[in-house]
Amino acid sequence: MHLRCDETPQWPLLQAHCDAAGRSFDLRQAFAADAERFAHFSQQAPYVFADLSKNLWDRQAEALLLDMARACRLEQSRDAMFAGQAINTTEGRAALHTLLRRPRGVALAGDEGFVAQALQEVHATLDAMLDFAEQVRADARITDIVNIGIGGSDLGPHMAVRALEAYQIPGKRFHFVSNIDGHELASVLNSVRPEGTLFIVASKTFTTLETMTNARSALDWFTAQGGRDVARHFVALTANVAKAAEWGMTTTFGFWDWVGGRYSLWSAIGLPIAIAIGAAGFRQFLAGAHAMDEHFRTAPLAANLPVRLALLDLWYRNFLGFTSRCIAPYHARLQRLPAYLQQLEMESNGKRVDHEGRTLPMATAPVLWGEPGSNGQHAFFQLLHQGPDVQALEILAVRDCAHGLVGHHEMLLASALAQAQALMQGRASDCGHRHFPGNRPSSFLLLDALTPASLGALLALQEHRVFTSGSLWGINSFDQWGVELGKQLAQDLQPRLQSGDVTGLDASTAGLVQRLKKLGSDSN
Length: 524
Ligand code: F6P
Hints:
The protein is α/β, with parallel strands linked by helices and about 525 residues long. The chain is about 50% helix and about 10% strand.
């Protein structure tokens, strides 16, 4: 039987350990008392080295957390995901994004019946998508690629294209339009020419309001500008190919309902990445992710990096009560990583009921936030050092750089190390505002270089970490019912902004609708 973490015998033991040693834990003393602390709490996983030693936990907490994970039958849940069981219970689907990076012809013990066939389809679509990407790369007439999509159909490709700029084909510009706010699309359209542009309409459902509105406006603009050959200039990436055909889009690359939107950049949704870095680069990206999949699938829990990260997350959230995790990538090209991770973690695990619909007695996903370092140091790091609440911090650094500017990279890396050091060590002062309390945690993830493969591994690491904490909390990490209500209410409110009808609205919404209607008519 799968237990939820709070139902295991380890849960009260963890609570007792937290009361006895967790809240009074001091990092500086822990390092002084244990010469092996760094060796024990750091490890190399595929492409990612992690130092978790500057965190507020000890070996006993980690051992209890590992026992708890075993009691929850985490390994069985993990195997069920890889085998394609319908672990997305509220939608009756598998969550098989790992299949998108599984090499051709590889079968796993326990694979569900449909998996072998699905793997063939994955590779057929991948081959076709990569051929198309190569055609676009070779077509000098196409100078601009405009991806129209939102959420998982935007955040992953956008983040990865920016991250892998060092590998990007010269002579092509990549634009990402997600917001229904027309300012975003308008500024892109102002900078492109119809004959030089490929519009990629990316939407799993092909019904998302923002994407459909932007796609309609892009199509109208294209024809109004004298653009010809919609079939050549518009391509659809979707699990709803029939719907795309209704739009006259005949070049389509499909994917499947067992690929969640926020897990979809490995599928056809990755087309902008493939155009940017080429077919070989995209295959390396998949291979890096697959290497991390194999690590997660086979490494013992105690040496399994996604599992260790998730156990630390759970310790912080449920026992030390931290409410957020700051993501600080010390690499300017990872600027979109915090936004991508926000969706991955908060849309997956920001839930208050378990698989059976029972209200959970404990907290789940923390708030994720962040900005690249060193920028963040000059903005919000003040709060991390001296704010009254302790927050988790994850620093991500890259050893090699892809520019030739002297001195920058050493200083960047030194800054990352210094922040972690300062947070931990603190500095005593009699003068309150100069006092740094120290004993503040940080994790340090390190890549040798930012390459397609290392990025793939890093993202798969984060996916599996989210899967692990979701499994332990007993929640379905693969649905997102919480986004529905606002979408429905917006459909009701839009005509009211025209008509001014406020019947049945609460007083605040009614007041705002009337004000917006009034402002609209004043400016007409
Ligand atoms: O509204 C949330 C959501 O459904 C996300 O889960 C998804 O990534 C995004 O919208 C976009 O959906 P689609 O790819 O179907 O347009």
